[in-house]
Design brief:
The structure holds 2 protein chains of 2 kinds. Chain A is of the alpha+beta class. Chain A folds into 2 domains: 4-78, Beta-grasp domain (Ubiquitin-like (UB roll), Roll); 88-156, [2Fe-2S]-binding domain (DNA polymerase, domain 1). Chain A contains 5 helices and 5 strands. A 5-stranded mixed sheet of chain A has the order 2-1-5-3-4, with helices on both faces. In chain B, helix 9 (379-397) packs parallel to helix 18 and helix 17 packs across helix 18 (748-765). Chain B contains 19 helices and 28 strands. A 7-stranded mixed sheet of chain B has the order 3-5-1-12-9-10-11, sandwiched between helices. Chain B folds into 3 domains: 19-26 and 487-633, Aldehyde Oxidoreductase, domain 4 (2-Layer Sandwich), CATH 3.30.365; 33-143 and 205-258 and 263-296, Aldehyde oxidase/xanthine dehydrogenase, a/b hammerhead (Aldehyde Oxidoreductase, domain 3), CATH 3.90.1170; 303-472 and 637-792, 2-Layer Sandwich (Aldehyde Oxidoreductase, domain 4). The chains are: A alpha+beta, B alpha+beta. The structure holds FE2/S2 (inorganic) cluster (FES) (2 copies). One FE2/S2 (inorganic) cluster binds at residues 40-42, 45-50, 60, 62 of chain A. One FE2/S2 (inorganic) cluster sits between chains A (99-105, 136-139) and B (205, 257-258, 510).
């Protein structure tokens, strides 16, 4: 199959690479750029393990063609911590034991950061509703909800 | 601060060491691994529930771009590979061994469930393999199929295996039949109940994956795979499938994204990847997509039961008789035969003094995916049955459900049950009392009345469970049919500079062993957490191990680590005695420091390690250099976690939508190493239990055997907005027979919670029983059924 050239900015770095036109953004990140922090948990856009930010908004990267992200600014879980310091949301997940196996975690954290940008001071109900598109099989969500509320508070201050 | 003054030791909610990598995208899961020159596998799967394979024509696929090879069951047979096995042999009532039909890694002449493995295409890229798999032409002769567990053994049902009459794998029994029959003769009441334990699909969030590699220079195979027990995978692939001898096969289970039992097992795909790597002389990678996971991961539960409980006039349980039909699916799986027998029938005493119990289990083959252990494995099925029938007894007799349970509680330990277990310790009143208090049971009637004023139905439900963890001892398991030992091993290695590497045969896939085990070692040896590294999941690094399942890692794996650490201390005392010119008996060890009793002479454990590796002044005549100890620990008994779960629900009768307004769990896990992690395990377990009770259920089409619930759009996984916050607390009776008093906490949530939910829902509606899952539709219909007679008035 013929390939096309795709350019975008990923975690602040300009990248250009060749890929098949049918390549999904998540495949481009994982296979071409070897950024394996973004995960694939399903094939029906249900689980949210693959959430990244595209121009600041959370997107399920299994649902978007890499070619559609041409010219966009992408942030993945690898780009969230700055200068070796965890992002406040990452730190809150650690502090509140919001992760167990860690597989849903990158998508969960990326979704949570986006959630806070829309709901800076979310209550439990809001967090639960807003995370409807992210499935975690390990934690029962109890500690994820706690972590997101704490992470939101830390992001405000 | 713990008893030894170690702020990072036993009882401290230390933040997890593994989180840094998971939170920054630096985890190393199997699909993150890529080998030089790697090729990709895609499996051709059966679209039929049952069919004979007349022929396979791979010529079109082989001509497609990038395709390296197409392998079928004929190639497997030509290479004389063995099949997958069931590691536990159950014997029927008549003494005959279970029927264990062959389970080839690629089907030879017949397929037996939708998703069964027919062929594998290996190509340069994943999409080329996938495209070419579509072009493999399989000529099927479709045969009749049976998918219903209840119907499988009925006369006239199609046979899954031609040589297994009535689809009966085994007909097992446990308990005293005559005594149980006698108990029913003396009963004042007989409570009976029919129930289904719904089939579940485990769905860890990381799909299974495998990368097989072969080094022709050394003749060594390496398999990276999503496994809960890499040594067991190596044993089966070596001894039974016959891929390579154990010493030429390395199995690595790196970071694994959840298992819940489904990654204990040895599956076709990983066997094929490692075998094919030699055939194509390239690494071969396979990553399951979610649709394949639904079809081919081992499923859980799937029981149909009839139970009767004999009760005296005061409400004391006299006898329990249970008849269960349990689905095995199309083939016996790694531990499937043990699940509805020794992990189920043995738990039917629960927390009660019922003196006579008799259970019969028929295991049947059906044209469905294999069924095997899923979080709890047999104990959730036992607990659901028992706690449902006890609840029905309370309702039939007009007794308070908490009081009826209390009336029957076991209070003397050790207690030998009529179903082969000996509970070493427990305090069921303590967990019940605390749960009643936290759930505010005494004021429930007021909440129910208040809900009624708003037009809502409110109900409360109990579950007082006991379960058995850390399957053991090996001697007993072997006598009951286990094909493996059930010990655990550990190695504690000091490096010359005083830091410690601990190798464990258990495997962490979310449980946080890198933290919990480090806490154990920190407390025991007085080394700081930062100086301890836990290594697991690689047969080339870890001496041996049986992996993680059955909530065994704390009680069995942790005890093995302590045993190895004790050997370190024993050797350290000898070294210090020599250096200090004192008697070994006078050397004391506490918090990382060896002291000569009654003097100020001392050496830190780091100094001892340095001396052991730089043995210039060292008793070389009596003692080997080095400070590195190995231990194997075989438990004397199971451990018995127990507790009380209470669920309170509110139902909107117009829609059937059920909301869990409060879920309380008070568990006795014995001593707790890291409360934060233990609570997390309980949360996750309860979420899966509530999932089973309210949302999840696997369905196959009765006619065609097609999996109807084959994606996250059809199979309802619990989401954040389906669940409440949980109210959790613990009581403690320490396990009496292991060195750390730990019982295990990984499965209790999924064991205790389903009956609590259904007891609450049926209480709210005012009906006796409802099968899981209590979906809004089912609940609404049940409410309508209670209203019909009134509507007719
Ligand atoms: S992988 Fe994208 S939603 Fe599941
Ligand atoms: S932490 Fe395992 S799926 Fe969420």
């Amino acid at each position: 199959m013929s390939s096309i050239t795709i350019s975008m900015s990923v975690n602040g770095k300009a990248v250009t690479a060749a890929a098949e036109p049918r390549t999904l953004l998540v495949e481009f990140l994982r296979e071409t750029l070897k950024l394996t922090g973004t995960h694939v948990g399903c094939d029906t856009s249900q689980c949210g393990a693959c959430v990244v930010h595209v121009d600041g908004k959370s997107v399920k990267s299994c649902t978007m063609l890499a070619a559609t992200a041409e010219g966009a600014a992408i942030t993945t879980i690898e780009g969230l911590a700055k200068d070796g310091e965890l992002h406040p949301m990452q730190a809150a997940f650690r502090e509140h034991h919001g992760l167990q196996c860690g597989f849903c975690t990158p998508g969960m954290v990326m979704s949570a950061v986006d959630l806070v940008s829309r709901h800076p001071n979310p209550d439990e109900h809001t967090v639960r509703e807003q995370l409807e598109g992210n499935i975690c099989r390990c934690t029962g969500y109890h500690n994820i909800v706690k972590a997101v509320i704490a992470g939101a508070a830390a992001m405000r201050s | 601060m713990t008893a030894t003054g170690n702020a990072e030791g036993f009882g401290a909610s230390v933040k997890r060491k593994e989180d840094q990598r998971f939170l920054t995208g630096k985890g190393n899961y199997t699909d993150d691994i890529n080998r030089r020159g790697q090729s990709y596998a895609h499996f051709v799967r059966s679209p039929h529930a049952h069919a004979r394979i007349r022929g396979i024509d791979a010529s079109a696929a082989l001509a497609m771009p990038g395709v390296l090879t197409v392998l079928t069951g004929q190639d497997v047979a030509a290479d004389k590979l063995g099949g997958l096995i069931c590691g536990w042999t159950i014997h029927s009532k008549d003494g005959s061994p279970m029927k264990a039909p062959a389970h080839p890694i690629l089907a030879l002449d017949e397929v037996r469930f939708v998703g069964d493995h027919v062929a594998v295409v290996i190509a340069e890229t994943a999409s080329q393999a996938k495209d070419a798999a579509e072009a493999v032409a399989v000529d099927y002769d479709v045969l009749p199929a049976v998918v219903s567990t209840a119907d499988a053994a009925k006369p006239g049902s199609p046979l899954v295996h031609a040589d297994v009459p009535s689809n009966l794998c085994y007909q097992w029994e446990l308990g005293d039949k005559a005594a149980t029959e006698a108990a029913f003769k003396n009963a004042a009441h007989i409570v009976s109940l029919d129930l289904v334990n719904n089939r579940l699909i485990p769905n860890p969030m990381e799909p299974r994956a495998a990368v097989g590699d072969y080094d022709s220079g050394t003749g060594t195979f390496t398999l990276f795979t999503t496994s809960q027990n890499p040594h067991l995978a190596r044993l089966v692939l070596s001894a039974f499938v016959g891929i390579a001898p154990e010493h030429k096969l390395r199995v690595v289970a790196p970071d694994v994204g959840g298992g819940f039992g489904s990654k204990i097992f040895i599956y076709s795909e990983e066997a094929v990847c490692v075998w094919a790597a030699k055939k194509v002389d390239r690494p071969v990678k396979w990553t399951s997509d979610r649709s394949e996971a639904f079809l081919s991961d081992a499923h859980g539960r799937d029981h149909v039961s009839h139970a009767e409980l004999a009760v005296d006039a005061e409400g004391r349980f006299l006898g329990l008789h249970v008849r269960t039909t349990a689905a095995m699916g199309a083939y016996l799986h790694t531990f499937s035969a043990a699940v509805p027998t020794y992990l189920y029938g043995t738990l039917l005493a629960g927390q009660y003094t019922t003196p006579a119990i008799y259970v019969e289990v028929d295991a049947v083959f059906t044209n469905t995916a294999p069924v095997d252990a899923y979080r709890g494995a047999g104990r959730p099925e036992a607990t659901y049955l028992l706690e449902r029938i006890v609840e029905c007894a309370a309702r039939d007799l007009g007794k308070d459900p908490a009081e009826l349970r209390r009336l029957n509680f076991i209070r003397k330990f050790p207690y030998a049950t009529p179903v082969a277990l000996e509970y070493d310790v427990g305090d069921f009143d303590a967990s019940m009392d605390r749960a009643l208090e936290l759930a505010e049971y005494s004021t429930f009637p007021a909440r129910k009345a208040e809900a009624a004023r708003r037009g809502k139905l409110r109900g409360i439900g109990f579950s007082a469970y006991i379960e058995a963890c850390g399957l053991a001892p090996s001697r007993v398991a072997g006598a009951l049919g286990a094909g493996v030992g059930l010990f655990e091993s550990a190695q504690v290695r000091f490096n010359p500079t005083g830091n410690v590497q601990v190798f464990t045969g258990c495997h962490s896939h979310g449980q946080g062993h890198e933290t919990t085990y480090a806490q154990l070692v920190s407390e025991h040896l007085g080394v700081s957490l930062d100086n301890i590294e836990i290594i697991h999941g690689d047969t080339a690094q870890v001496q041996y191990g049986l992996g993680t399942y059955g909530s065994r890692s704390g009680s069995v794996g942790g005890s093995a680590i302590i045993k190895a650490a004790d050997k370190i201390i024993a050797k350290g005392r000898k070294i210090v005695a020599y250096r200090m010119e004192a008697s070994v008996d006078d050397i004391e060890f506490k918090a990382g420091v060896f002291k000569v009793a009654g003097t100020d002479k001392q050496m830190t454990i780091a100094e001892v390690a340095f001396n052991a590796y730089v043995p210039h002044n060292y008793p070389l005549e009596e003692l080997e250099p080095g400070l590195d100890e190995n231990a194997f620990y075989d438990p004397q008994n199971f451990t018995f976690p127990s507790g009380t779960h209470i669920c309170e629900v509110e139902i909107d009768p117009e829609t059937g939508v059920t909301q869990i307004v409060k879920f309380t769990a008070v568990d006795d896990f014995g001593r707790i190493i890291n409360p934060m992690i233990v609570h997390g395990q309980v949360h996750g377990g309860i979420a899966q239990g509530i999932g089973q009770a309210m949302l999840e259920g696997c369905h196959y089409d009765e006619e065609t055997g097609q999996l109807i619930t084959g994606s996250f759009m059809d199979y309802c996984m619990p989401r954040a907005d389906d669940l409440p916050n949980f109210t959790i607390d613990a009581t403690e009776t320490a396990c009496t027979h292991n060195p750390i008093g730990v019982k295990g906490c990984g499965e209790a949530g999924a064991i205790g919670s389903p009956p609590a939910v259904i007891n609450a829902v049926t209480d709210a509606i005012g009906i006796r029983h409802m099968d899981m899952p209590a979906t809004p539709e089912r609940v609404w219909r049940a409410i309508q059924s209670t209203r019909l007679p009134r509507a007719a008035e």
